[in-house]
UniProtKB/TrEMBL annotation:
<dbReference type="Pfam" id="PF19700">
    <property type="entry name" value="DUF6198"/>
</dbReference>
<keyword id="KW-0472">Membrane</keyword>
<feature type="transmembrane region" description="Helical">
    <location>
        <begin position="107"/>
        <end position="129"/>
    </location>
</feature>
<feature type="transmembrane region" description="Helical">
    <location>
        <begin position="159"/>
        <end position="186"/>
    </location>
</feature>
<keyword id="KW-0812">Transmembrane</keyword>
<feature type="transmembrane region" description="Helical">
    <location>
        <begin position="18"/>
        <end position="35"/>
    </location>
</feature>
<feature type="transmembrane region" description="Helical">
    <location>
        <begin position="55"/>
        <end position="73"/>
    </location>
</feature>
<protein>
    <recommendedName>
        <fullName>YitT family protein</fullName>
    </recommendedName>
</protein>
<dbReference type="InterPro" id="IPR038750">
    <property type="entry name" value="YczE/YyaS-like"/>
</dbReference>
<feature type="transmembrane region" description="Helical">
    <location>
        <begin position="80"/>
        <end position="101"/>
    </location>
</feature>
<keyword id="KW-1133">Transmembrane helix</keyword>
Amino acid sequence: MAAIGNLRHRPVRRLTQLYLGLALYGISMALMIRSGLGLNPWDVFHQGLSERTGLSFGTVTIAVGAVVLLLWIPLRQRPGLGAVSNVVVIGLVVDATLALLPAGGPLWARAGLLVTGIVANGAATGLYLGADLGPGPRDGLMTGYVARRPHRSIRLVRTVIEVGVLALGWLLGGTVGVGTVAYALAIGPLAQLFVPMFTVAPPDVAGGGRVAPQPAG
């Protein structure tokens, strides 16, 4: 797998960056949850399932990630280290962070949690994508589908999937609010800022001329 091959170049830097990024991603999710002001589409779905099943948010996140990885099989996608680690690490970190963060608080404090969570999520995206050890299961599902059907726009596929999980999550009781809109508007520019900043250039590129990997959509 290409992701495993990448470990031959600067493995310590890549692995450290991958796991820091995934840990920060889990923390950012917990901050947005505790804000109570709205979540990104997949987390609305995770929260709705958590409410219905009684399982912890992190457990649901891991379970959904594992199911999404199974959907890679008909697309002939091979999960790399980044995808497998994404499934496990984020779920464990989000539960640990939620255990430490109290719920509630004044609106200004919750707004601060929301803004911090969104910015941290953008930085986390830059860290783990910049490590170039494979996309997360949800991004891999979208890119794999488009690779099998090149006439489809990845933006269209991403929109259809995320609107679908958002609607289903809302029906299940997940939190949709101003944070959902703020995330949708901010995550693209934030990823565009942080992904090039943290991208590790391959050894065959001199002078840093490599084009940074872009987040799906």
